[in-house]
């Protein structure tokens, strides 16, 4: 029995996708979906750049999940998957200037403008609880 690499990767990353979509986070898988959602998102929008790496699994996704338990949360919740939905991720990253590409990473936008950004190096060396606290602080500041 043989399986294509593409099918293998889809099967491997689906649980990583599900971890965020179960929270009500909408996947943006194409450039068109990114362009339809990000620039016109009124209010606040959280954009999680998902990844297969260990810091996404151990810190970023659990940190986002904990932060979304806060009373104040963004109006819109989106995710792109680095290395999987490459064009969509590249398009979303256009809105994260001046930050270089980073995955995982977490952006908070308000009326289409970036107001808070957590880069990979700020995820790797912190716990999920610390990332959640960082996001909750940003939610409380920008999402009211």
UniProtKB/TrEMBL annotation:
Pfam family, one: Disulph_isomer
Family listed: Belongs to the bacilliredoxin family.
Transmembrane segments: none
Coiled coil spans: none
Name of this protein: BrxA/BrxB family bacilliredoxin
UniProt-listed InterPro entries: BrxB/BrxA
């Amino acid at each position: 029995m043989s399986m294509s690499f593409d099918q293998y990767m889809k099967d491997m990353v689906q649980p990583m996708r599900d971890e965020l979509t179960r929270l009500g986070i909408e996947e943006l898988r194409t450039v068109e979906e990114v362009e339809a959602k990000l620039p016109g998102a009124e209010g606040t929008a959280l954009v999680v750049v998902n990844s297969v790496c260990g810091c996404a699994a151990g810190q970023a996704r659990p940190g986002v999940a904990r932060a979304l338990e806060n009373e104040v949360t963004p109006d819109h919740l989106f995710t792109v998957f680095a290395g999987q939905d490459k064009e969509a991720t590249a398009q979303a990253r256009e809105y994260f200037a001046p930050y270089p590409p980073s995955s995982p990473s977490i952006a908070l936008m308000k009326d289409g403008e970036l107001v808070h950004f957590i880069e990979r190096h700020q995820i790797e060396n912190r716990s999920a609880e610390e990332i959640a606290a960082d996001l909750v602080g940003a939610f409380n500041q920008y999402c009211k």
